[in-house]
């Protein structure tokens, strides 16, 4: 199994002990080698071990493929991006005494299929928990239900958000604005950003997530509305949030 993994990923090098640790979490003693997707298990084990090449491969080759399945739950671009960000944090980062979430992958199914299940569950959970992503233009399943009046409300909400976003971005220092611009406007990967700022990709993921949370918190303060009205206003423009952010950062 180890040799199959090495042949599939010649640029990713981990020890036999690191691979066996992943295998033994799920081994039952009676599994045939042909039942294990060793190539995918090797990649997962390398990610859990924090191997930089494996993390870059997961970010480049695996994670983008779940976007269409997330979009089936809710197609708003910022929703898809948020779910992918949650998957990065959940699957690639160790927390407290727990290993990264990819440690739960046992190689009994293709990694892509396993990840699709995790992604859809994460998307459905986020949709239930966060009112920003249940827009007036769609129901919880992403089916269009809006009309001209709701379209007008969405335009008005977007205009209000645009002003609040401009004021919020002005409060960030140049360094943080540059990080956001490179990520949202230039489409630079977290791995590439990490190299620029000389930090690990996981550190950069936490930084981008923190900036997004900071922006949202300050936007709530800028909009200065009661909780019900605020959630409605943010929900109306959630599908355009990253578009507005990109437009401001370009300027």
Describe this structure in words.
This protein has 251 residues and is mainly α. It contains 13 helices and no strands. Helix 8 crosses helix 12 (227-237). The radius of gyration is 20 Å and the shape is elongated.
Tell the overall outline. elongated
Order of helices and strands: HHHHHHHHHHHHH
Radius of gyration: 20 Å
Number of helical stretches of at least 4 residues? 13
Q: How would you sum up the major sheet?
A: none
Secondary structure: elements and pairs:
Blueprint: H1 2-8, H2 16-24, H3 38-48, H4 52-62, H5 67-73, H6 77-92, H7 111-129, H8 148-170, H9 174-185, H10 190-197, H11 201-223, H12 227-237, H13 241-250
Helix pairs in contact: 1-3, 2-3, 3-4, 6-7, 6-11, 8-11, 8-12, 8-13, 9-13, 10-11
Offer a few descriptive terms.
251 residues; 13 helices; mainly alpha; 67% helix
Short summary:
This protein has helices spanning 2-8, 16-24, 38-48, 52-62, 67-73, 77-92, 111-129, 148-170, 174-185, 190-197, 201-223, 227-237, 241-250. Helix content is 67%, strand content 0%.
């Amino acid at each position: 199994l180890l040799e199959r993994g090495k042949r599939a990923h010649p640029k990713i090098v981990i020890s036999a002990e690191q691979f066996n640790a992943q295998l033994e979490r799920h081994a039952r003693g009676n599994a045939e080698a042909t039942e294990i997707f060793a190539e995918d298990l090797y990649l997962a084990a390398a990610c859990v071990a924090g191997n930089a090449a494996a993390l870059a491969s997961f970010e480049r080759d695996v994670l983008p493929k779940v976007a269409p399945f997330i979009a089936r739950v809710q197609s708003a671009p910022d929703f898809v991006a948020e779910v992918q960000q949650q998957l990065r944090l959940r699957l690639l980062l160790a927390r407290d005494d727990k290993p990264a979430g990819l440690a739960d992958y046992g190689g009994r199914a293709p990694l892509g299929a396993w990840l699709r299940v995790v992604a859809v569950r994460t998307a459905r959970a986020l949709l239930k928990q966060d009112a920003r992503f249940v827009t007036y233009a769609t129901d919880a399943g992403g089916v269009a239900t809006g009309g001209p009046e709701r379209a007008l409300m969405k335009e008005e909400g977007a205009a209000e958000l645009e002003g609040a976003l401009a004021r919020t971005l002005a409060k960030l220092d140049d360094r943080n604005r540059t990080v956001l611009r490179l990520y949202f406007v230039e489409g630079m990967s977290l791995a590439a950003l990490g190299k620029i700022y000389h930090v690990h990709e996981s550190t950069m993921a936490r930084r981008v997530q923190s900036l997004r949370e900071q922006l949202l918190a300050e936007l709530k303060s800028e909009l200065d509305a009661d909780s019900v009205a605020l959630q409605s206003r943010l929900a109306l423009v959630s599908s355009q949030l990253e578009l507005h952010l990109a437009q401001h950062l370009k300027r």
